[in-house]
Amino acid sequence: MQFFSTDKKSALEAKNMAQFIAFGPVIFQVARIMRNSGILHEIEASGSAGLTLQEIVARVQLPNYGVRVLLESGLGIGLVIINDERYRITKTGHFILHDPLTIVNMDFMHDVNYNGMFYLEDAIKNERPEGLKVFGNWQTIYEGLSQLPKHVQKSWFAFDHFFSDTAFPAVLPHVYNKHNHIKKLLDIGGNTGKWAIASTTFDPEVHITIMDLPGQLNVAKTTIAEKGLTDRVSFHPANILDATQPFPKGFDAIWMSQFLDCFSEDEITSIMQRCHEAIDENGFVYVLEAFWDKQRFEAAAFCLQQTSVYFTALANGNSQMYNSEIFKNAVLKGGFEIVEEINNIGLSHTLWKLKKRTTVTA
Ligand SMILES: C[S@@+](CC[C@H](N)C(=O)[O-])C[C@H]1O[C@@H](n2cnc3c(N)ncnc32)[C@H](O)[C@@H]1O
């Protein structure tokens, strides 16, 4: 909690911040349009010379009035500065334009969350993803993922993959090594097959079974076939929220990456209990998650805390990016103990290796 134990702002800074919050939707849309319309790009490309309003209008071919309003708003936001009527880009403007994390977050917020966030208050009260109705009539976003508009899917997957892509290369050697002897692994929530592809490429002998909702598995099946990995990867369609469905057995290890955060604490415990039934005493469960209280950088903790609200309003109404202690409690209740913890993997992840808890008799 290192970042969140003191009120660091002066009164003036706090009042400025409060205005950023009050005008939040305006600031967001202005920054996004200045990025997408080419305004920031043109100003940056002009270098130290900068550009006048008229020069920017000519380059982006938008009405003078609209560009002026955006630029003046951009001054207050801190995206651009003005001297002698010439606009130049700021460091924040640079990050809006080029930083991959910012781009992925901004697209995810606009395409997936923006309209649905209007229903956050109802979602909090009802513990349901009330914002999801802007896309369709599903219980959770995961049921509808394969049917979302293409540009929404694109931003959702880019967001999801951005975080796991940076973590997977770093964790592969921890999972597949001579001490673990993993030949058969069950990847729960395997999504588009990224972990299955990374695993079978890294370890020539391992066989992966992806367990996910049928809609997601159709996408994964196509990708796996295209990669020529049909012999190395199997599929197990299931809705894990149906607690009567037992997990398939016979695996050396179970892998869950960015998966358990899609569920409430009780649901996490139920999933872990079923993992407990599915593996034997020598089996492992690997959990790869990002916890906001385990971050090195305040911006990383901030991103995770705000991503939680997507789960509330859009995804399922009852899960979040967890604080590690709350998550640990829900996981261990399923009958496991943590035998290894590695933090600071990729952008923001923690890897837990879990074993069945040995029962202590009195
Ligand atoms: C956030 S994605 C994680 C994907 C991948 N493991 C990664 O690390 O990038 C969560 C995955 O869980 C799946 N999922 C969500 N709810 C599910 C459910 N009720 N039953 C089975 N799979 C589910 C989704 O379809 C999705 O593929």
From TrEMBL:
A Pfam cross-reference name: Methyltransf_2
SUPFAM superfamilies xref list: S-adenosyl-L-methionine-dependent methyltransferases (SSF53335), Winged helix' DNA-binding domain (SSF46785)
Domain of life of the source: Bacteria
Recorded GO MF terms: O-methyltransferase activity
Domain BVU-1015-like N-terminal dimerisation-like: from-to ranges: 17-87
GO biological process, one term: methylation
Entry keywords, A to Z: Methyltransferase, S-adenosyl-L-methionine, Transferase
Domain O-methyltransferase C-terminal residue range list: 177-320
CDD domains for this protein: AdoMet_MTases
Name of protein: Methyltransferase domain-containing protein
